[in-house]
């Protein structure tokens, strides 16, 4: 299937282009970006022009930041295209519900991708936990915003999500692997004095579940989830790439294919073939709740 990448920036070039190139299902037929492009691929700067000129491209993958994404998704669905959304799937829950309604009305496929759910050990963790009682769960998600979002001021603008941009990756894993859902009870959000979104957050959920997100970790990425059960402790490390069960490294039983983004594109291919929608918003609900229930603390100003 021919696909167009829209919003050619960091994640499009780091992950989407290689995943599409490595797949037998997909051909990157065009891009649309105000500045970015991919060598050897037809490049548009205007989305209406792409939709008009290339009726043969039935699928678009939207890789721009969340705030501008809705207008592109709505246009694509109105033009009868199937749509793949980078995470988070929008800037608000209402936008996502509206897109889902549009996709249902037009019969298009719509995929709210959660790349961290496609990490190697997430299916094995889900399988092991499926018949367990959870005693306690804790997420530690610390990384450098300077490393992962160099100079991207949009992450600190309204709708940019702040530290929830990576934190939602942890929440996407949590909501996938827990055998029963939890919901947020309280949160503390740390806002740099010169910014509109939090740089760190602490979350308390039902079910003795908690999370700490911090974007000021300059030494190394820490993307860990520890889940304690009466039958032992499961730890996911490196964002779900490694799993340790009762102190023993888990080997084998990886999800098929290799890599998070190749798995996302394989799933999108299935959705288009089935005419299906995959729009699980459960990670996003926790982020919205954190903003509704969160206590605000002001911390030191942050500049890239
Ligand atoms: P980015 O590089 O800042 O943005 C991607 C591209 O979107 C930009 O190069 C820009 O291309 C276009 N864009 C920016 N603002 C726009 C606007 N107002 N209207 C239309 N297009 C606009 O961001 P990114 O890091 O790739 O992140 C994009 C999405 O991917 C985010 O939702 C993020 O959460 C997700 N993501 C990022 C990472 C990561 O490591 N950075 C990892 C996983 C997922 P033009 O200027 O050429 O139009």
Throw out a few tags for this protein.
304 residues; Rossmann fold; 9-stranded mixed sheet; 7-stranded parallel sheet; 9 helices; binds NADP nicotinamide-adenine-dinucleotide phosphate
Low-pLDDT regions: none
Computed Rg: 19 Å
Report on the biggest sheet. Answer: 9 strands, mixed
Distinct ligand kinds:
NADP nicotinamide-adenine-dinucleotide phosphate
Q: Give the CA-CA distance, first to last residue.
A: 40 Å
Mean pLDDT: 97
Q: What share of residues is helical?
A: 25-40%
- CATH architecture label of the largest domain: 2-Layer Sandwich
Strand content: 25-35%
* CATH homologous superfamily caption of the largest domain: Dihydrodipicolinate Reductase, domain 2
What would a concise description of this structure say?
The chain contains nine helices and 16 strands. With 304 residues, the protein is an alpha/beta fold. Strands 14-13-12-11-7-10-9-8-16 form a nine-stranded mixed sheet.
Verbal overview:
This protein is α/β, with parallel strands linked by helices and 304 residues long. The protein has 2 domains: 2-112, 3-Layer(aba) Sandwich (Rossmann fold); 116-251 and 287-299, Dihydrodipicolinate Reductase, domain 2. The chain contains 9 helices and 16 strands. Strands 14-13-12-11-7-10-9-8-16 form a 9-stranded mixed sheet. Strands 3-2-1-4-5-6-15 form a 7-stranded parallel sheet, sandwiched between helices. The protein is globular. The mean pLDDT is 97.
């Amino acid at each position: 299937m021919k696909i167009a990448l829209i919003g050619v920036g960091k994640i499009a070039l780091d992950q989407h282009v290689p995943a599409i190139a490595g797949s037998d299902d997909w051909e990157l037929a065009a891009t649309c970006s105000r500045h970015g492009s991919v060598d050897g691929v037809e490049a548009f700067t205007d989305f209406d022009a792409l939709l008009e000129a290339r009726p043969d491209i039935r699928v678009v993958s939207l890789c721009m930041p969340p705030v501008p994404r809705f207008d592109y998704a709505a246009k694509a669905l109105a033009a009868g295209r199937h749509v793949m959304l980078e995470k988070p799937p929008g800037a608000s829950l209402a936008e996502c519900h509206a897109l889902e309604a549009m996709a249902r009305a037009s019969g298009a496929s719509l995929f709210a991708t959660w790349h961290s759910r496609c990490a190697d050990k997430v299916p094995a963790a889900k399988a092991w936990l499926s018949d367990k009682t959870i005693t306690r769960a804790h997420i530690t998600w610390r990384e450098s915003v300077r490393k992962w979002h160099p100079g991207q001021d949009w992450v600190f603008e309204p709708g940019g999500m702040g530290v929830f941009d990576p934190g939602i990756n942890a929440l996407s894993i949590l909501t996938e692997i827990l055998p029963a859902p939890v919901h947020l009870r309280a949160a503390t959000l740390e806002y740099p004095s010169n910014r509109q979104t939090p740089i760190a957050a602490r979350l308390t959920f039902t079910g003795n579940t908690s999370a700490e997100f911090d974007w000021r970790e300059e030494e190394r990425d820490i993307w860990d989830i520890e889940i304690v059960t009466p039958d032992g402790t499961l730890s996911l490390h490196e964002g779900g790439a490694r799993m340790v069960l009762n102190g023993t490294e888990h080997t084998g039983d990886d999800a098929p294919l290799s890599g998070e983004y190749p798995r996302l594109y394989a799933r999108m291919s299935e959705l288009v073939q089935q005419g299906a929608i995959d729009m699980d918003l459960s990670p996003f609900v926790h982020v919205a709740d954190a903003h509704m229930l969160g206590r605000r603390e002001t911390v030191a100003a942050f500049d890239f």
